[in-house]
């Protein structure tokens, strides 16, 4: 962990900057579970412990204690029938809901964007930083995928709703002072759809939670939700063809179908406790990552456990998986390309047997790095030295 410790020590003044004299709001699309976006919120709260959280829908039973302790304010979406379960059906009303929130008390606004979040109206002198997990996929590049799988009424309505949402989404981007993307891939999408530049700050990963194991098995690992875009089907087909051992951790709508066609060399474990998941990360020969993700936290967690990754060479994997250092890429989502990449990995004995080198690479994605970079950027956007921020 030497690299991350050196980085953080060099930036610790910014990471420890006291912004307590400033009124800060964190705007998040919805708080109904704990996934990558909510982990970002937790790290932001380390920097801004008195921040107010604004969200469309909030279910306190499904978030962490750290988030529950905050002042969480909901938009009017939360008062609509069935909003906690069916919030996404109210998407057309979310732009209006955001614009009705009075943000005049806040000096700094950090919007966490993946669903509608950045569209609040800040004070003219307030700083608005948008941490973008992704421009809304269901109105941009994944629009046709979502529409194809929608019900009959939704399929009829989507062209009209999406058209209006795109206009609002682009216009509301002008209310943001600084965009921050969670990967180079997302920075490209921000440039394409909003015509804005973006800093890249990788999302926080608790690298120290993971450790190297001396007991590495002869099996590969696939971990995550079994939904179509993650391409678990490709992994199953590839391992059916090669006969190599594959362990699959996770659940989802495709599991039953995949179990039916999987051969005896493929084992399904379902959802497992975090302690067992960490053990799976540390003892697999390598992780197989066949889908395209905006960032992809699981590959970083596996690398933090000292194991390499075989990843489809698009999306966030281009930032996280470095060929020859932490894994290999394949560039076509085919059985042949995936199995050839695994052959390449197995031939690279030095890579497979260099867990400390792989772990050192993962250190650049540590949560302390995230916090140091965010604090530095906020201080710069405020036009303040860190010492000034402390006395603001």
Walkthrough of the structure:
There is one protein chain. It is globular and about 60 Å long. The strands form 3 sheets. The chain has a 7-stranded parallel β-sheet, sandwiched between helices. It is built from 18 helices and 13 strands. Helix 8 links the parallel strand 6 (178-181) and strand 7 (198-200). The chain is of the alpha/beta class. The protein starts with a helix and ends with a helix. Helix 1 runs parallel beside helix 17 (367-382), helix 2 packs across helix 17 and helix 9 (232-242) packs across helix 14 (335-347). 42% of the residues lie in helices and 14% in strands.
State the oligomer.
single chain
Kindly state the percentage of residues in helix.
Answer: 40-55%
Low-pLDDT residue spans: 385-392
What percentage of amino acids are in beta strands?
5-15%
- Through-space gap between termini: 34 Å
Task: Give the number of helices.
Answer: 18
Overall strand count: 13
Give a short account of the largest sheet: 7 strands, parallel
- Label the structural class: alpha/beta
Task: Explain briefly what this protein structure is.
The chain is of the alpha/beta class and 392 residues long. It has helices spanning 2-15, 36-47, 65-68, 83-86, 94-99, 143-148, 152-173, 184-194, 232-242, 255-261, 274-283, 297-304, 317-320, 335-347, 349-352, 355-362, 367-382, 386-391, and strands spanning 24-28, 52-55, 71-74, 108-113, 127-132, 178-181, 198-200, 220-223, 246-249, 266-270, 287-289, 309-312, 327-330. The longest helix has 22 residues, at 152-173.
């Amino acid at each position: 962990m030497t690299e991350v410790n050196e980085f953080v020590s060099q930036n610790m003044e910014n990471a420890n900057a006291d912004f307590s004299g400033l009124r800060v709001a964190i705007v998040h699309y919805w708080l109904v579970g704990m996934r990558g976006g909510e982990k970002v919120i937790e790290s932001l709260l380390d920097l801004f412990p008195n921040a107010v959280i604004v969200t469309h829908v909030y279910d306190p039973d499904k978030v962490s204690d750290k988030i529950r302790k905050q002042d969480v304010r909901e938009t009017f979406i939360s008062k609509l029938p069935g909003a906690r379960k069916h919030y996404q059906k109210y998407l057309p009303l979310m732009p209006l809901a955001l614009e009705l929130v009075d943000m005049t008390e806040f000096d700094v606004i950090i919007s966490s964007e993946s669903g509608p979040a950045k569209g609040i109206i800040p004070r003219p002198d307030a700083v608005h930083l948008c941490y973008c997990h992704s421009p809304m996929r269901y109105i941009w590049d994944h629009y046709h995928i979502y529409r194809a799988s929608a019900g009959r009424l939704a399929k009829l309505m989507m062209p009209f709703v999406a058209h209006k949402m795109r206009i609002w989404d682009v216009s509301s981007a002008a209310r943001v002072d600084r965009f921050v993307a969670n990967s180079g891939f997302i920075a490209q999408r921000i440039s394409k759809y909003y015509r804005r530049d973006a800093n890249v700050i990788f999302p926080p990963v608790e690298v120290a939670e993971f450790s190297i194991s001396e007991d590495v098995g002869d099996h590969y690992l696939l971990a995550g939700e079994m939904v179509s875009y993650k391409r678990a089907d490709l992994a199953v087909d590839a391992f059916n063809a090669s006969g190599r051992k594959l362990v699959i951790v996770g659940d989802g709508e495709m599991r039953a179908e995949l179990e039916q066609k999987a051969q005896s060399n493929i084992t399904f474990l379902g959802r497992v406790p975090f302690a067992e998941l960490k053990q799976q990360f540390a003892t697999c020969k390598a992780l197989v990552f066949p889908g395209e993700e905006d960032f992809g936290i699981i590959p970083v967690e596996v690398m933090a456990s000292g194991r390499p990754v075989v990843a489809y060479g698009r999306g966030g994997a281009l930032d996280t998986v470095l060929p020859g250092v932490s894994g290999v890429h394949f560039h076509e989502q085919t059985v042949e390309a995936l199995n050839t990449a695994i052959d390449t990995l197995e031939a690279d004995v030095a890579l497979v047997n260099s867990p400390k080198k792989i772990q050192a690479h993962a250190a650049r994605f540590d949560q302390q790095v995230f916090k140091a970079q965010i604090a530095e950027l906020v201080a710069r956007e405020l036009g303040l030295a860190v010492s000034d921020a402390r006395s603001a």
